[in-house]
Amino acid sequence: MRYVNATLPDGSRRDISVEGGRIAALLPSSGNAASAEDLDLDGALVLPPLVDGHIHLDKTLLGLPWVPNRATGNQVADRIEAERKVRAARSLPESETGTNLVRQVLASGTLHMRSHVDIDNQLGLRNLHEILKVRERFRDLVTIEIVAFPQSGVLRSPGAADLLDAAIADGADLLGGLDPVGIDGDLDGHLDAIFGIAERRGVGIDIHLHDGGEGGIVELLAIAARTKAAGLSGKVAVSHAFALGSVPTARAAETADALADAGVAIMSHGPGAATIPPLLLLRQHGVEVFGGSDNIRDAWSPFGNGDMLDRAMMIGYRANFRHDHELSVAYEMVTSAAARALGLADYGLHVGSRADFVVVAAGSIAEAIASRPRRKLVVKAGRVVARDGMLET
Amino acid sequence: MRYVNATLPDGSRRDISVEGGRIAALLPSSGNAASAEDLDLDGALVLPPLVDGHIHLDKTLLGLPWVPNRATGNQVADRIEAERKVRAARSLPESETGTNLVRQVLASGTLHMRSHVDIDNQLGLRNLHEILKVRERFRDLVTIEIVAFPQSGVLRSPGAADLLDAAIADGADLLGGLDPVGIDGDLDGHLDAIFGIAERRGVGIDIHLHDGGEGGIVELLAIAARTKAAGLSGKVAVSHAFALGSVPTARAAETADALADAGVAIMSHGPGAATIPPLLLLRQHGVEVFGGSDNIRDAWSPFGNGDMLDRAMMIGYRANFRHDHELSVAYEMVTSAAARALGLADYGLHVGSRADFVVVAAGSIAEAIASRPRRKLVVKAGRVVARDGMLET
Fold first, then answer.
1. Which residues of A fall within a CB distance of 8 Å from B313?
2. Which residue, among A307, A131, A66, A142, has the nearest Cα to B45 in the 3D structure?
């Protein structure tokens, strides 16, 4: 079958031929549907699948009645404590709320994601096992990378390192980390633990770093040095890295050089109140910069919906992007750059790739990022799986 | 007729009886529709109409093919120059693009707005007359306050003061202003001009103030002093006031006291990259704080859609609101507080008020702000004018 009269991201008009779930040809548009099997896109913009580089499938409360935020302070540690109370009170398991969220993001065109999953000495591996169920449930539709995330710290949470190791054995794909100084108070101890497990298990790393200012920069430089020493270039990311947005430009540029040299990527969700890393500067210095949702209606934040075009808009809004070439950066952060950071093979709209794409009501990439357009179709392996934001599966 | 089984903002379940376009009764819900004329809201949340305290109906390019941003620098003055080029190239008059925008915001539940309209020596009163046509077109559906806005400055744009005065004579409701120091380079001269006209014409004032830091604070204090001297308490607003978010808290608090004492309100749209005023602190000190869209797909910004629940979410996200009581502040900023700032008589959901309201798919105010819910119905004078985001008129 063919999807005819598609506008590709480069502005060209093409007919997309699908065979065996893959793109068999991308020919200049013939202008009309030739068979009853063809679907006429009428010039609508076709994007590769959206990629969410940072989601928390186990934290969301989506589908539960509204749960007010209970944090008594404004620090990461306060929110960790508040979440422990919310967890204890939830009336649906994480596999159900996580399923609600995957269904929602799938309908918006996201077909790949990296989910952090909380591991601590209260939870053990429970959340991991819940989210493994979700991954299995959606295995034909969505790829879900799982990061074993020490939400309560590693050194301050006795037994956490062993749990993280066991999480990898049970199916998690990457090691997580959390504010080595801000939460664990021991930069080297924290990094020893997680790089040790990652090297032994042969997996990548994605570290939450909220610590700001020069202290956060020192942590970033240590992560870059560890990454080089461990030969993990291209397999390590730091999520948030607010510090890069709170130091002088020259210091951010130096740090960017070290991150690029070590092959450490930076994930930003376009934070609301925290400083945002200087995205354009990082890219100019060769750092892979990608996007993610972060919290979605959970104990951390009431906001978020998992729509990565919406997220790209938020990133662009926070980064003061106004020109089309800047909006393209936000677009890449939720498509190709995120695909590279997640190590997705075979990503993109080209002959031979999987026939996975999103059809949106916009005339160009810039408009798609600025206007949060309607998702007309989500196509997986050549088959329509969502229409106008509603799943058909 | 009645709208039965409505959940009001306070959580109570009520039947709303409508007679002669007004709310005739708000009785505890009977649980079912009694006549064929009744509409069952099935427990959906009913909000008073949304209020946009700061929109630019003449600037939007909505309905035109995508227009890339052309600004060559990142200053207000660069964007003023870029907009002059975009204006010259537009192929639809401001009355048509403004109509597109009013239709869009009406469908999202906004029934009242304050629109700034550019007045300068290139445009003369052309944009004002275009937007007066829009106001007339929607007079039965939407109230539109018009601010005569000196987008190119007052003192640096020869003849601007006379044009502003003529704009009031022609139908504008308030005097605007723009960065007395940053654009005109003369604090007293700028304020002399606009307060002079406002006093003579007996109208209020709404000044765009982007100037940051202590310089911006000095301007705010001068505006407060002028407001008291002119007896314009409650009729003056400052839009943006980024400076309040970039000075030490004690200085912001002092300034808040002066603003509250003078009856000067502050409008914030939840800026993307600029500092946001400390909204909670301002309210604690008695300042009226309200919300607005600011730019919507125009020469200034590619973003924005005019949906005030979306805007309240952006304000809350930028202000780091997470708790329900904070989300309620964002809600008030786009409803009751904006209604007070605009001087709307007879606003709100009570017996005797106009039967104007929005029915949304949310269980509470907090959820309505966090989740940008579907607008099930928009009701004007008791009559459904939009359903599921689509106008019926």
1. 303
2. A66
Contact list in A for residue B67 (CB cut-off 8 A) is none
Q: Are residues A198 and A231 in contact, defined by beta-carbon separation less than 8 angstroms? A: no
The minimum CA-CA distance between B21 and chain A, rounded to whole Å, is 33
Q: How many residues does chain A have?
A: 393
Per-residue pLDDT tens over the stretch B141-155: 999 999 999 999 999
Given a contact cutoff of 8 angstroms between Cβ atoms, the answer to whether B90 and B62 are in contact is no
Crossing angle, helix A213-230 and helix A187-201, to 10 degrees? Answer: 30
Q: Which tokens go with B365?
A: 């105010």
Cite the beta strand spans of B86-168 per DSSP E. Answer: 110-118, 143-149
| Strand-strand pairing, A375-380 and A383-387 | antiparallel
| In contact, B266 and B259? CB cutoff 8 Å | yes
Looking at domain A50-341, its CATH class is: alpha beta
d(CA A234, CA A265): 7
**DSSP single-letter state for residue A29:** P
Tell me the three state secondary structure of residue A148: strand
Q: Give domain limits for chain A.
A: 2-48+347-391, 50-341
Would you give the distance in Å from CA A11 to the centre of its chain? Answer: 26
Do the beta carbons of residue A210 and residue A176 sit within 8 Å? no
The pTM assigned to this predicted structure is: 0.97
Cβ A292 vs Cβ A51: under 8 Å: no
ipTM of this complex prediction, to 2 decimal places: 0.96
CA distance A219 to chain B (A): 25
**Tens of pLDDT along chain B (393 residues)?**
999 999 999 999 999 999 999 999 999 998 776 688 899 999 999 999 999 999 999 999 999 999 999 898 888 889 998 998 898 889 999 999 999 999 999 999 999 999 999 999 889 999 999 999 999 999 999 999 999 999 999 999 889 999 999 999 999 999 999 999 999 999 999 999 999 999 999 999 999 999 999 999 999 999 999 999 999 999 999 999 999 999 999 999 999 999 999 999 999 999 999 999 999 999 999 999 999 999 999 999 999 999 999 999 999 999 999 999 999 999 999 999 999 999 999 899 999 999 999 999 999 999 999 999 999 999 999 999 999 999 997
Q: Is A40 helix (H, G, I), strand (E, B) or coil?
A: strand
Strand partners, B290: B267
Q: Is B324 on the interface with A (CB under 8 A)?
A: yes
Cβ of A74 within 8 Å of Cβ of B320? The answer is: yes
**Residue A159 — φ and ψ, nearest 5°?**
90, -5
What six digits make up the tokens of A22? 């893959």
The four Cα atoms A308, A309, A315, A320 give a dihedral, to 10 degrees, of: 180
- CATH topology for the A2-48+347-391 domain: Urease, subunit C; domain 1 (2.30.40)
The pair of structure tokens assigned to A370 is 């600025």
Burial category of B20 from C-beta neighbours within 10 Å (exposed 0-12, middle 13-18, buried 19 and up): exposed
Q: How far apart are CA B93 and CA B70, in angstroms?
A: 20
CA distance A373 to A376: 9
CB within 8 Å: A367 and B320? no
A364 touches chain B (CB under 8 A): yes
Domains B2-48+347-391 and B50-341 share a fold: no
